[in-house]
Specification:
Layout lengths: L12 H4 L17 E7 L12 E3 L2 H5 L7 E3 L7 E4 L2 E11 L2 E5 L1 E4 L6 E8 L6 E9 L14 E8 L5 E7 L11 E6 L8 E7 L3 E6 L2 E7 L14 E9 L1 H4 L11 E13 L1
Parallel strand pairs: 3-6
Antiparallel strand pairs: 1-17, 2-7, 4-5, 5-6, 5-17, 7-16, 8-13, 8-17, 9-10, 9-16, 10-11, 11-12, 13-14, 14-15
Length: 274
């Protein structure tokens, strides 16, 4: 999403859809090919499991982001809480850290290189929300100053003013929004805010494949032309967050009367090839 203004993943739906694949069958999901290596099914009550999750608050002081309206909190049950088997990441209209809203941005403590990442989630619908499930390289920091060269994988992005339109993208030095060359596509998921859906990445040295449930809608094959186009042969960690406003989320304003707004997560599962 997110580190610097990558809001232009929405540039030209005609370009976005050029990478779509209508094949609903995933050849890599045959029984026995994937082994579950990490999961959180949120079968507890309280703050997110501290052995699995940390909080990304670096942007609050470093100033990166997309001119978003939220302050990311840490260990605050009002913004990240688990109950009844569901993780709830909640954005609230309250004055925190000089911002108009508070929210949470969780990041996995584990990193993985290749595999299948599946997150079952329900997105917030309100205008001004910008929810995301995405990945960044392990050990990366804003202070490194080398985005997007190091790579970013956006498994799911959704903005409330474009209800039901799900985005997936991959960013690199050569394929990025500044050049309008990012590898990206959209799919309409009309019940994304009402029902849980699985947002899935299948990632190998050869290809990135993005799904909603069993629908494959973006395929990006490794062209073998080097790291400037394919910086994905290294471990990445997972990020879950709800941003408010910013250059993309605020394109049609923020419905301040609609808050609080919550992204609900039923489970996170990571598989690797046996």
């Amino acid at each position: 999403m997110k580190i610097v203004i990558n809001f232009l993943v929405i540039i030209s739906l005609g370009i976005l859809m050029t990478n779509c694949d209508s094949n609903p069958k995933s050849p890599a999901t045959k029984e026995g090919e994937w082994k579950l290596v990490w999961q959180d099914d949120f079968s507890y009550t309280g703050l997110p499991d501290s052995t699995k999750w940390d909080y990304d608050t670096e942007g609050n002081s470093a100033g990166w982001g997309n001119n978003e309206a939220q302050h990311y909190t840490k260990l605050d049950k009002n913004n990240a809480w688990v109950e009844n088997g569901i993780l709830k990441i909640t954005a609230r209209k309250d004055s925190v850290g000089g911002k108009q809203f508070s929210s949470a941005r969780l990041m996995s403590k584990a990193n993985w290189q290749y595999g299948k990442i599946e997150v079952s989630a329900k997105v917030p619908p309100a205008r001004g929300t910008w929810s995301a499930i995405w990945m960044m390289p392990g050990g990366w920091s804003f202070n490194d100053g080398n985005w997007p060269d190091i790579g970013e994988i956006d498994i799911m992005e959704h903005v409330g003013h474009d209800l039901g339109v799900i985005h997936a993208s991959a960013h690199s030095k050569d394929y990025q929004w500044q050049k309008n060359t990012q590898k990206t596509a959209t799919i309409l998921n009309a019940t994304a805010h009402e029902e849980f859906h699985s947002y899935i990445l299948e990632w190998s040295p050869e290809v990135l494949k993005f799904y909603v449930d069993n629908q494959l809608y973006l395929t990006y094959e490794n062209e073998g032309l080097g790291e400037s186009k394919w910086p994905y042969d290294k471990p990445f960690y997972l990020i879950l967050n709800v941003a408010i406003g910013g250059a993309w989320g605020d394109m049609k304003g923020i419905d301040e009367q609609a808050f609080p707004q919550t992204m609900e997560v039923d489970f996170v599962k990571v598989y690797q090839q046996e």
